Automatic annotation (TrEMBL):
GO terms for biological process: phosphate ion transmembrane transport. GO terms for cellular component: membrane. GO terms for molecular function: ATP binding; ATP hydrolysis activity; phosphate transmembrane transporter activity. It holds the Pfam family ABC_tran. It comes from Acrocarpospora macrocephala. The keyword Nucleotide-binding applies. CDD domains: ABC_PstB_phosphate_transporter (cd03260). This is Phosphate import ATP-binding protein PstB.
């Protein structure tokens, strides 16, 4: 059963995913559900019991070829994939936290990872730029290819990986320096000495922060609001001109207004960067992402818990007609 036909939780959560400007699909809802849908952020199509929720009526699945969708980015698994993972397993000491993940991540698209706590979402994200390397006991099996090169090959420099694949963390973490020096820090460390003023301005403009701070660049970054600090951290990440941005729960510590600004910013940044985001907020995943992967927790015969990727598909399909019942149960609130 597709989620458009699913129960109350599914309708409420799908409604929160509505993006303005998309073609309308009509779903039946009682007056009680109409109130929930409106509160979740959907728009009322009429005063009747029939609600309208924005979703593409002809959204291609992950298996649709580029030839069938001219002008769109290629789906996961195509030659345009930025990352390709094959049978990836992650361990910390003797504990396996992720088992046999195979997936592709598309170029200049937003891919969201959702799922149960403990399913390995953050470990998977951090493995994409080798942030796990310094964690005691970390070990990885399988292959992660970035631009067709094995990220974990012996000749690959982890520092260069992290320059090309930036990271934004759960809580804003500006340095106790000026706004200017926060943005300039990465370029200076990487030897980008020329035109620093232009580099800082460009990064702050891209992070939608320039107009708010251009007259106080020498002020402490710690004086900014939480939302501004998070956008500053995004500016700091993109100042060194990465190709990918990884975001680990970037809005979990922010209020709704600051969250909306970060979400709008992600949509703008996806024009220039490949973005992968971990979020526990399914509505956020549905609002901002092009693709969504769902991870769950399984238990082996020895009672050991580990994470596993259930499915990855276009976000519209994950939230309306997933292939796996476990995904549907999670989306509709039947577990997790």
């Amino acid at each position: 059963m597709g989620l458009i036909e699913a129960g109350a939780w599914g309708l409420g959560r799908v409604a929160a995913a509505a993006r303005p400007g998309r073609p309308w699909l009509r779903v039946k809802a009682s007056p009680w559900w109409a109130r929930v849908l409106v509160a979740a952020g959907a728009r009322r199509a009429s005063t009747s019991d029939s609600m309208a929720v924005t979703y593409p009526a002809n959204a291609p699945s992950a298996l649709t070829s580029a030839a069938e969708t001219p002008g769109e980015s290629d789906p996961p698994g195509s030659s345009a994939a930025m990352f390709e993972l094959h049978d990836v397993c992650i361990f910390y000491g003797d504990a396996q936290v992720l088992r046999r993940v195979t997936m592709s991540i598309s170029r200049k698209q937003i891919t969201a990872l959702i799922g149960l706590s403990g399913s390995g979402k953050s470990s998977l994200l951090r493995s994409l730029n080798r942030m796990n390397d310094d964690v005691p006991g970390f070990r990885i099996e399988g292959r992660i290819a970035y631009e067709r090169q094995d990220l974990y090959a012996a000749e690959v420099d982890p520092q260069e990986v992290r320059r090309r694949i930036g990271m934004v963390f759960q809580r804003p973490n500006p340095f106790p320096k000026s706004i200017y020096d926060n943005v300039a820090f990465g370029p200076r460390v990487n030897g980008m000495t020329g035109g620093m003023d232009d580099i800082v301005e460009k990064a702050l403009i891209k992070a939608a922060l320039w107009d708010e701070v251009k007259d106080r660049l020498k002020a402490s970054a710690l004086l900014l609001s939480d939302g501004q600090q998070q956008r500053l951290c995004i500016a700091r990440a993109i100042a060194i001109e990465p190709e990918v941005l990884l975001m680990d729960e970037p809005c979990s510590a922010l209020d709704p207004i600051a969250t909306a600004k970060i979400e709008d910013l992600m949509q703008e940044l996806a024009r220039d960067y490949t973005i992968v985001i971990v979020t526990h907020n399914m509505q956020q995943a549905a609002r901002v992402s092009d693709y969504t992967g769902f991870l769950t927790v399984e238990v082996d015969h020895e009672g050991q818990r580990y994470g596993r990727l259930v499915e990855l598909d276009r976000t519209t399909r994950i939230f309306t007609k997933p292939n796996d019942k476990r995904t549907e149960d999670y989306i509709t609130g039947r577990f997790g």
